[in-house]
Amino acid sequence: MSLYLSNATGYVVQEAYKLDFISDTAESIGKNIQTLADITEKWTPDLRILFLGFYY
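RE: above sequence
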């Protein structure tokens, strides 16, 4: 009986670590997307000016 309990506990801990890893990965991807969106938002007017400068 204790073997089953030990295996069940190990499985639960293993799954918790997997979910934690997935959560951390998703959070990291979200932060990177926000950073890229912020950079794009800041640079958009400058890129328009640069494009218009080349166009004229």
